[in-house]
Structure formats: structure tokens, C-alpha cells
Design a protein that fits this description.
This protein is α/β, with parallel strands linked by helices and 673 residues long. The chain folds into 4 domains: 53 residues, Phosphorylase Kinase, domain 1 (2-Layer Sandwich), CATH 3.30.200; 198 residues, Rossmann fold, CATH 3.40.50.740; 192 residues, Dimethylsulfoxide Reductase, domain 2; 124 residues, Beta Barrel (Barwin-like endoglucanases), CATH 2.40.40.20. It is built from 23 helices and 27 strands. It has a 6-stranded mixed β-sheet with strand order 5-4-17-16-15-6, with helices on one face. Helix 15 crosses helix 17. It starts with a strand and ends with a strand. The structure holds ligand MGD (2 copies) and molybdenum atom. One ligand MGD binds next to helix 5 and strand 22.
Length: 673
């Protein structure tokens, strides 16, 4: 038995250091590596099962070529040479006839290693293909909102939460998506620090919090502005901090806050008036309030301004200036690495952009040239992308040449002309840096890839060679690519340039106690000139949902999509144990909503709106309020009547960052039949 130090590559903020136990070339167990203080020797329930993921009987082991209609899932095995030659020949044909922008590389985040994630983007960059505006399905709205308010910098060290005097999980189910942060929160609570959860759902973290404030979906902006209204009214602000570090406080105070007296805020959010007052008083008393900003609250039409409003609060009480205080969204910006060397080797400075969440639209309606060649890796848009019916109609186009690289026969792979078997992360070598804490680590592979599976990075290199690309990156080993990544790295990272970090294990980047603002003014920009120039309200505000949007009048229920505990999107769908733990794909209604519809727990129901319908099992629970239907996770179709909840979600954008608006979906729930 051998124990190999690796890193979890799943799309998760924690980025665990792991120990893979290997017996005769087979991973038999995966557990947390105690050598890393944040992830602290424990793995989540999903990753603790990653031996089952690598060894899953459902893995693809050979390249496949389509032998039936698109979407039918009929394939025959071919060799890698045949597959790669066919891809190169098709791409060359497409480029000759339509130009390189008729190609689209649609790769995303299921492997968080820098090379297995980035080099495939580098390939399409060098080819001059249409460029994916990636991450709009996920974090582009919250990131944009953060960048214009705090700047393109990381948040506080999440480990500093142990020094907070008040902790607020605002739109984040920490037990599901951030379990190592949750452990630090629990440490602080042992000292008597209070945890408040602000979330429409009484999820696991909310159940064990000191106080849960269940607000209406999409009303966070109103609540945050109401909190600041009271802090100003009651003189609970840190005037010195505001004078030195905050831009736009006076404008907010004069023009926006008067619109949000506590009575109105209570009415808008559904929170009790006394609770709005109490929340504001808590922030007002606090010197080190730590807000964990969740992405969930930003996935609706006013998501960007909501995040800006919430992130302004620690500026008013001065918490940004002290260890243990502030607001945490992401850490990725804290690593100033030479990413361009991997993602943008050669290739034109700019080409046509395609928004990640509008794949369906791009495949069906983009012209001049239309998308003719599509390469999908490390994401599963036939399930996870909004307007899924459009996505699938696009993928079904006979004149579209589609390649999907995946360890499993995903719903998307069924539409491919060629499917390539992907290695899973335990079979790959890579360098990692977290997006939710300040650790980085190099990891070897634990075992060789199953069957003929290949890593993302090696597929990018093989295709680059066949396409005649000359960039050295496409011939480098992961170790050489790491050297390149650190070339010209800034700040504390500079000390690792030219150093072999392969054997070093987890490395932590120290963070300052006070938040550094990377905005043009160097301050917390409650007022953002950057937004004003884009024609967006430069001050955080909240409005009643736009009148041109008729959906809210037309359909009685609003959708809440929240992460699954035992599934992360569809990435663990190939592990039967975790599928069972998560249970059948379901939706949740409050007992009142179920009873007016005559529905009972466990029955099949139809969720529908003008975009389509989905069949799910009903669960009845008061963990959500009336007027809402909760759908946990995005689950693969189990048969041809079920479907992805994204069939019902539009591809409309958020107020900034062109992000997805899953939470601005309205629908009806009825008995199935
Ligand atoms: N309704 C609704 N939709 C959502 C969300 C929501 O909250 N509600 N959340 C959104 C968010 S935040 C995100 S990030 C997206 C996530 O959606 P996706 O990015 O589509 O993620 P997954 O569904 O996990 O799909 C990952 C795919 O990559 C494959 N894979 C795993 N490892 C590797 C690898 O190393 N190489 C290759 N080539 N493939 C690999 C997996 O088998 C799987 O098929 O979904 C978005 N969609
Ligand atoms: N187990 C597990 N872990 C995961 C994932 C997973 O699917 N499963 N996904 C991974 C990925 S790709 C990402 S991007 C991160 C995302 O992780 P988070 O940043 O935590 O964001 P979400 O999971 O989208 O949403 C979290 C919460 O937002 C709440 N919410 C929704 N709308 C609103 C609203 O209007 N107001 C408020 N206050 N709350 C609202 C939901 O009820 C939910 O509890 O997690 C990662 N980790
Ligand atoms: Mo995400």
C-alpha cells in the first residue's frame, strides 16, 4: 500500500489536500491530509468516496464515434489515433471554409488544476477560435460586483473567521458548499460568537445557526440597505473608517438609504420588523463582523447590486479594517500568477465572444460564421446551462461537429460525434491554487488513467500537435508549465519563481489583517464610477422586479435552486452510492402550497412554465416558504420524462457581469399525469 499526497480538483472553494491510498495501481481510499491546516485532515462526504469515482464501472475507457442519431447515445469504439485525426481533419475543414471563429472551445471547471483546466483554453486561443466568456453560469455576476466594489483582489483569509465577533452566512449553505469554512465557524462559536444565516431556505447550516432570517428570494439588496439605514439613523457607523476608506457613503446616505426605512424593508423581504432592527443593531455593535458572501444571492436579476449592498456593510462598521472582519467571496485574485502563459499562448488579442450561459442561442442563432465545430470538456451543458431545450436543439444540429471529453457518458456526451474518455483528477498531475482559501500545492497523479483515458492537458497537447501549433506550452511537462506559471509572478509568490515546489506539499500565502481595496480610488467603492461609465447605477439600490417581466404575474411559484449535499452539479453522478444518498431528483414545496394543490409527499409532479416541463418527486417541508419551489442540485435525466430544471430557466442576464438568473424563474407545480 502506498500513500500519495494529492489535491482535490473538484469545483469547490475548499481545495482539500488529500491522501490517496493506492494498492496495486488502484485507489482504494481517499482521505483528508492533516498537513493542511484549513482543510484539516477531513474530506467531505462526496470526496471521501472518490475511490468509487475513479473505479466506477460507468467510466468511459475508449474513444467513441457516433453510430446513431445525435442524442441517441449510440456509439462504437475507435482508436485514439482515429479520433484525433478525425477531429483535426474536421477542424481544418471548418477553418478553411468558415474561418477559425466557427470553432468554439467550451471547457470549464470540473478539473481545477491550472493545466488541466487552462491548457485546453490555450489551445482554442492559439487557434483563434470564438472565445468562451466562461463562468457566466456560475460566478461572473458576483465577481464583477466584487471587483467594482472591493477591487480585483482576494477577500480576507477565511481562517481569520475564528477571530470574528459576529459571523453572517449571507446566501451560502456552508455545510453543503464550504464545509471546511464551516468547521472554522464552529470554532468561533465555541467562544460564543453568534452565527446568523440569511437565506430563503432553512438548510442544514441555517438549522444549526444561532439565528436564521428567511427572506424572500432576490430581496437581499433591500435588506442590506435597510440595515445601513438603521446604522446611520442610530449613529452606529465608524465615521473615521468611512472617511479614510469608503467612497460614496454620503451619496448612499442622501439618495438611497432614505428609501429603505425598516418598515418597508420588512414588507419587501418578509423578515419581521423587529428582526431587521436587531440585525442592524448587531452589525452596529460589531467591530469584526465576517460576512461569507454566497453566490446564490447573485443569481437573479438584481444580483450584482445585492452583493454590492451586502458588501458595503463591513465598510460602515469598519470591520474591513480589522482581522476577523470583512466580507469573503473568493480568494483566487490573491494569486497573481502568469495565467496567460497557459491560457493565452499565441493567438489573436480579441475574437468573437460567446457567453457560456447562452450556448443554445449561439448554436441556433449565431451567424457569420455559425458555430460549426464544438469541443466540450469538464462541463455538462445539456443539464447545467439555462434554456436547456435550446442547448439540446443546438447540439442536435446535423451540421455541427461536436467533440466531448468526459470520464463519463454525460447527457452532453450523448450528442457528440466523438467522445473522448477523460482521466479523473487522481489520474493526473497538476498544480493547484484554491479559489476559496490561500493555499497552493503541486500534486502528482495517484494512479495511471483507467483504460485509455487521457487527461485534459494531454488532449490539448495532442490536438495542438495535430493542428500544427508551435507554442512551447503544448510540448511542456506539468513541471515545466509550473515554472512558466510562476515566471513574473507578483507579491509573495515571486519567491517561488524558479523553485521546484513539487515536493513541498501545501503552501499558504499570508494575508494582511485589513482588507486592501483594489478599486481605482483605493477605497471601498459604494459609489462606482466604473459602473456609471457602463450605464449601470453607480450606487447599490433595489427595485421592485421590472414591469416588463411578466413571468412573475403569470406563474405562481418562484424557483430556488440550491446545491446538492451529495452531488456537486453532475460531477458525482457516476458514483452510485452518492446518487442513492442524494435520493431521487426532487423538488420541495411548503405544506401550504402542497395542500392547495392537493399534492402529497412522494408523488411525481410536473414543474412547468412557457419553456417546458420537468418531472420530479415531491417532498413536502417547511424548510422553504410559501410561494417558492426548491429544487436541490442539477441532476441528470433519469428517463425521457424527467429533465434538467434548467429547461425552465431563461438565459437572461444579471444586472452586471452577464451572469445567469436561475433564481428569477417562475413556474407552476401540478400533479404529473
Ligand atoms: N439551475 C441551476 N443551474 C446551475 C447552477 C444552479 O445553481 N442552478 N449552478 C451553476 C454553477 S455554479 C456551475 S459551476 C455549473 C456547473 O455545471 P458544469 O460545469 O456543467 O458541472 P458538472 O455538471 O459538474 O459537469 C462536469 C462534467 O465534467 C466531467 N469531468 C469531471 N472531471 C473531469 C476532468 O478532469 N476532465 C474532463 N474533461 N471532464 C471532467 C464530469 O463527468 C461532468 O460530466 O452549473 C450551473 N448551473
Ligand atoms: N456539495 C456541493 N458543493 C459545491 C457545489 C455543489 O453543487 N454541491 N457547487 C460548487 C460550485 S460550482 C459553486 S459556484 C459553489 C457555490 O456555492 P455558494 O457560493 O454557497 O452558492 P450557491 O450554492 O449557489 O447558493 C447558496 C445558497 O444561496 C441561497 N440563495 C438563493 N437565492 C438567494 C437569495 O436571493 N438570497 C439569499 N440570501 N440566498 C439565496 C440558496 O438557498 C443556497 O442556500 O459551491 C461549490 N461547492
Ligand atoms: Mo459554480
Amino acid at each position: 500500500m502506498e500513500v500519495i499526497r494529492v489535491v482535490c480538483a473538484h469545483d469547490c472553494p475548499d481545495m482539500c489536500s488529500l491522501l490517496a491510498h493506492v494498492d496495486q495501481g488502484r485507489v482504494v481510499k481517499v482521505e483528508g491530509d492533516p498537513a493542511q491546516a484549513y482543510t484539516d485532515g477531513f474530506a467531505c462526504a462526496k470526496v471521501a468516496r472518490d475511490a468509487d469515482l475513479v473505479n466506477s464501472a460507468e467510466r468511459l475507457t475508449r474513444p467513441l464515434k457516433r453510430s446513431g442519431p445525435k442524442g441517441s447515445g449510440q456509439f462504437q469504439s475507435i482508436s485514439w489515433d482515429e479520433a484525433l485525426n478525425s477531429i483535426a481533419a474536421n477542424w481544418k475543414r471548418i477553418i478553411a471554409e468558415f474561418g477559425p471563429t466557427a470553432l468554439l472551445g467550451y471547457a470549464y471547471s470540473a478539473h481545477q488544476g491550472q493545466f488541466n483546466r487552462g491548457l485546453i483554453n490555450g489551445l482554442f486561443h492559439a487557434l483563434g477560435a470564438s472565445r468562451l466568456l466562461a463562468g457566466t453560469v456560475c460566478d461572473s455576476c458576483c465577481e464583477t460586483a466584487w471587483d467594482v466594489t472591493i477591487g480585483p483582489v482576494g477577500g480576507p483569509d477565511p481562517e481569520s473567521v475564528v477571530d470574528a465577533d459576529l459571523i453572517v452566512a449571507w446566501g451560502a449553505d456552508l455545510v453543503a458548499t464550504n464545509v471546511h469554512f464551516w468547521a472554522k465557524v464552529e470554532q468561533a462559536r465555541k467562544r460564543g460568537v453568534e452565527l446568523i444565516v440569511i437565506d430563503p431556505r432553512r438548510h442544514r447550516a441555517a438549522k444549526s445557526a444561532d439565528w436564521h432570517i428567511p427572506i424572500r428570494i432576490g430581496t437581499d439588496g433591500a435588506l442590506a440597505l435597510g440595515v445601513m439605514h438603521i446604522m446611520v439613523r442610530d449613529n452606529l457607523c465608524d465615521a473615521a473608517y468611512i472617511r479614510d476608506h469608503v467612497l460614496g457613503f454620503e451619496q448612499l446616505k442622501q439618495t438611497v438609504l432614505p428609501k429603505f426605512p425598516p418598515e418597508r424593508v420588512a414588507e419587501l423581504t418578509g423578515a419581521a420588523l423587529a428582526d431587521v432592527e436587531r440585525l442592524a443593531a448587531k452589525f452596529g455593535e460589531s467591530k469584526r463582523s465576517f460576512i461569507r458572501l454566497g453566490e446564490g444571492m447573485t443569481r437573479s436579476l438584481q444580483g450584482g447590486q445585492a452583493l454590492r449592498a451586502v458588501a458595503s456593510i463591513p465598510g460602515l462598521n469598519g470591520s474591513y479594517g480589522r482581522r476577523g472582519g470583512g466580507a469573503f467571496l473568493l480568494a483566487a485574485n490573491g494569486f497573481a500568477l502568469n495565467y496567460d502563459a497557459i491560457r493565452k499562448p499565441s493567438g489573436p488579442a480579441a475574437t468573437r465572444l460567446v457567453n457560456h450561459l447562452r450556448l443554445g442561442e449561439a448554436l441556433l442563432n449565431l451567424g457569420d460564421p455559425p458555430i460549426k465545430g464544438l469541443f466540450i470538456a469538464a462541463n455538462n451543458p445539456a443539464i447545467t446551462c439555462p434554456e436547456t431545450a435550446k442547448v439540446r436543439r443546438g447540439l442536435a444540429r446535423d451540421d455541427l461537429f461536436t467533440v466531448v471529453h468526459d470520464p463519463f457518458m454525460s447527457a452532453t456526451a450523448r450528442y457528440a460525434d466523438i467522445v473522448l474518455p477523460a482521466a479523473v483528477y487522481l489520474e493526473t498531475e497538476d498544480f493547484y491554487r484554491s479559489y476559496g482559501c490561500y493555499y497552493m500545492q503541486y500534486a502528482p497523479r495517484a494512479v495511471a488513467p483507467l483504460g485509455e483515458a487521457r487527461s485534459n492537458y494531454s488532449v490539448a497537447q495532442a490536438l495542438a500537435a495535430r493542428m500544427g501549433l508551435q507554442d512551447a506550452q503544448f510540448r511542456m511537462t506539468p513541471a515545466e508549465l509550473t515554472t512558466l506559471l510562476f515566471t513574473g509572478a507578483g507579491g509573495e509568490l515571486a519567491q517561488y519563481a524558479g523553485v521546484d515546489i513539487r515536493e513541498q506539499g501545501p503552501i499558504k500565502l499570508a494575508q494582511p489583517d485589513a482588507q486592501v481595496f483594489g478599486t481605482p480610488s483605493g477605497k471601498l467603492e459604494i459609489y462606482s464610477e466604473t459602473l456609471a461609465r457602463q450605464g449601470i447605477n453607480p450606487l447599490p439600490d433595489w427595485n421592485v422586479e421590472l414591469p416588463e417581466d411578466g413571468d412573475g404575474q403569470r406563474w405562481p411559484l418562484r424557483l430556488l435552486t440550491a446545491p446538492g449535499y451529495f452531488q456537486s452539479h453532475t460531477a458525482f453522478a457516476g458514483v452510485p452510492y452518492l446518487r442513492r444518498r442524494e435520493g431521487d431528483p426532487c423538488c420541495v414545496l411548503n405544506p401550504l402550497e402542497a395542500s392547495v394543490r392537493g399534492l402529497v409527499d412522494g408523488q411525481a409532479v410536473r414543474l412547468s412554465n412557457q419553456r417546458g416541463r420537468v418531472r420530479l418527486m415531491l417532498r413536502i417541508s417547511d424548510e422553504i416558504q410559501s410561494g417558492v419551489v426548491l429544487v436541490p442540485g442539477q441532476r441528470p435525466d433519469i428517463d425521457d420524462t424527467s429533465g434538467s430544471i434548467n429547461l425552465l430557466c431563461s438565459d437572461r442576464y444579471t444586472d452586471m457581469g452577464e451572469g445567469a438568473t436561475y433564481q428569477s424563474t417562475w413556474l407552476q407545480v401540478q400533479a404529473w399525469n
